[in-house]
Amino acid sequence: MYNRRDFLVGATAAAAVLGLAACGGSGAGSGGPDTDAAPSDQTVGVAMPTQTYERWVADGNNIKKGLEEKGFTVDMQYADDDIPTQQQQIDQMVNKGVSALLIASIDGASLSSQLDAAAAAGIPVIAYDRLLTDSENVDFYVTFDNYKVGVNQANALLFGLGLLDEKFEKAADAPKGPLNVELFAGSLDDNNAHLFWKGAIDTLQPYFDDKTLAVPSGQMDIEQAATQRWEQETAQKRMENLLTTHYNGGEELAGVLAPADPLSRGIINALQNAGLGPTLEEGLPVVTGQDAEIASIKLIADGVQSSTIFKDTRQLAEQAIVAAESILKGEDPEANDTETYDNGVKVVPSYLLEVQMVLESNYKEILVDSGYYTEEQVKSGQL
Ligand code: BGC
To answer: Which runs of consecutive H residues, i.e. helices, occur in 29-145?
Structure first.
């Protein structure tokens, strides 16, 4: 029997073939969305990586709320950090005929066939926070200035070590060194991890060159420093191994470059379990972070974690929605970077948001006074 659904699928496939032949299958180009449709007739598919980390839960909530306020229906799925699950979820969204896709990938290079299918069905794709790589079928990218995240992390480390003053200039009473540090990176399949690393290493390199900083483990390549899937436990284990292997003869560890708060907390656990600290004042090494997660803000307020980077996910969600609305109306979304994000096939037009370094001295101003967190949440370390 030929039911309506078969017909729609058949029609989409036929349109896809025509679209591909006509314009090479680029997202909004191949047929494209119905630019006259009202939001109330449109569903936006939102694919998110994991609910384990606070930041992705906040992102998801903000996106859903913002889209619903505009009248859209939202199909949001979390993939439990499992690539096949995310692939299936996106396949389903494409089959259902969503009007647009917002994707925060687990592995940026693993979704090519889903993106091809989306393009064939005329569904525009926006990469959310993480770049989708190795595919032509990405229409737009919203993210933060990821290189600057790394620069800020390195500067926060240098500040915590007393090498930079509060104006982030060379401190008058800077220690001579060499100060020992260890370096952690994120997941290699996340393009962001490479930019965070590059921003940080570019900033730290002069200090390695003049021997103000040393890395006793010698693990200075991103491959050696990487943390698969950004897992807290993996970072904690690596820190434990580094301590037993390279710091068992009284060598002093002064600081750790950590790329994200969950990893920072794993690293801090390892350090404290080895008898360091428990606070910075009591000799805990300086540990950086990212995402301003509430548990880490408590640690910063308590003088345990040294810094984090605040990325306002409310703004990112808003920007993603603005971009989706433009694409759905058949317009080009406003980009502020059309050079940086080469995904291996094309440079994806992007909108980058600014980030802020958070320290014990400014967390109140940035996060409490602005209403992002309450005093009570900071005190309890919970939302
Ligand atoms: C995000 C970071 C986050 C990390 C781990 C990156 O892609 O940009 O904000 O800490 O993933 O979830």
So the answer is: 54-69, 83-96, 112-120
| Assigned token pair, 167 | 């104006």
Residue with CA closest to ligand 1 atom 10: 260
Amino acid occupying residue 89: Q
The per-residue pLDDT for range 172-200, each reduced to its tens digit, is 999 999 999 999 999 999 999 999 999 99
Contacts of 347 (CB under 8 A, 6+ apart): 338, 339, 340, 341
Instruction: Name residue, tokens 């940026």.
Output: 108
Mention every residue, 6+ apart, whose C-beta is less than 8 A from residue 292.
Answer: 261, 308, 309, 310, 311, 358, 366, 367, 372
Tell me the DSSP string of 303-327: TSS--EEE--HHHHHHHHHHHHHHH
C-alpha–C-alpha distance, residues 138 and 142, integer Å: 11
Judged against a pLDDT cut of 60, whether residue 9 lies above it is answered with: no
Centre of ligand 1 from the C-alpha of residue 323, in Å: 21
Name the residue of 51, 53, 55, 316 to mutate for ligand 1: max ligand atoms within 8 A of Cβ: 55
The atom of ligand 1 lying closest to the CA of 130 is 7
Is residue 24 left, alpha or beta, with left meaning phi > 0 and alpha meaning psi from -120 to 50? left
CA distances from 38 to 31, 41, 42, 96, 201 (A): 18, 5, 7, 18, 47
Q: Ligand 1 — pocket residues by CB below 6 A?
A: 53, 55, 129-130, 186, 190, 192, 230, 260, 290-291, 311
| 218 φ/ψ sector (left φ>0, alpha ψ -120 to 50, else beta) | left
What is the rounded CA–CA span in Å between residue 286 and residue 338?
36
How many degrees, rounded to 5, is the angle at CA 135 between CA 131 and CA 140? 50
pLDDT (tens digit per residue) in 202-217 = 999 999 999 999 999 9
For ligand 1, atom 4: residue with the closest CA:
260
CA of 260 relative to ligand 1 center, distance in Å: 7
Q: Of 57, 105, 190, 265, which is best to mutate to test ligand 1, by the most ligand atoms within 8 angstroms of its C-beta?
A: 190
Tell me what pLDDT residue 11 has: 36
Between the CA of 38 and the centroid of ligand 1 the distance, in Å, is 33
The pTM of this model reads: 0.91
